[in-house]
Design goal:
seven-stranded parallel sheet, two-stranded antiparallel ribbon, binds NADP nicotinamide-adenine-dinucleotide phosphate, Rossmann fold
Length: 246
Amino acid sequence: MYKGNALVIGASGGIGKALVKQLYESGEYEKVYAVSRTSAASPVNGVQYHSLDSENASLVAQYCQQLKQDNGQFTLVVCCIGALHATDADNQRIMPEKRLEDIQQDQLSFYFKTNAILPAIWLKHVESILKGTEPAKLVFFSARVGSISDNQLGGWYGYRASKAALNMMIKCAQIECQRRAKNISLISYHPGTVETELSKPFQSKVPTGKLFTANFTVTQLLKIIPSLSAENGPHYIDWQGNDIPW
Ligand SMILES: NC(=O)c1ccc[n+]([C@@H]2O[C@H](COP(=O)([O-])OP(=O)(O)OC[C@H]3O[C@@H](n4cnc5c(N)ncnc54)[C@H](OP(=O)(O)O)[C@@H]3O)[C@@H](O)[C@H]2O)c1
């Protein structure tokens, strides 16, 4: 059986780290590549780490060209990039908007850049390493709150809208891949609420038993994706494998 290669983008985050470890330990991949902004604090022996600033699109392009030159086809690429809160360059806290009055231009730019634009740049460049004769999966960590039809509560304007924008990129890309890279299946994944830096300010509101470990949601993802086909894609699914309405 062909053993493909795997790439994790955003490999230093809470979920990214768990994913790299599980992929490597599965033994199912020829090589596991992991890319993040800073070098890994506790690297997994045998994983091919690389530090790169995703905001520099030429570096992303060069890195993907190199991966293509050095390797056979990749069968899995997962992009974990995303943000819900942050501290900006002026030391101002960015927190999700609760009401219209909270909407600010800089904050919206931050959300769209991190949750939609950077993943889209990777989407553009990883097609060439996934395209081939073997079935391949391209997964983006999205969120259920990016669903337009499932939005019952409102709020979180920037995060919701930027994840919805990511979902639209995924939808467009699947249509294009069905014409020119039929082996690639695109997946927009909601991991549940996971115990990482991203959810920290909101964890106290999560009902008992609903705050998952990164390992749990990664195990679920890896269990679910083998059955997802490119013909029926893109797939917008949660950690249980249930479809989320777009
Ligand atoms: N945790 C949850 O409850 C939850 C719920 C729904 C959806 N998600 C989604 O799951 C994904 C992973 O989140 P997490 O929980 O693991 O959060 P996290 O620990 O805060 O990790 C954040 C991730 O985003 C990347 N990132 C952030 N800003 C970036 C930038 N400017 N340039 C490049 N990379 C950037 C980080 O990459 P580096 O490795 O380079 O640092 C890291 O992979 C996100 O897309 C998030 O929206 C999480």
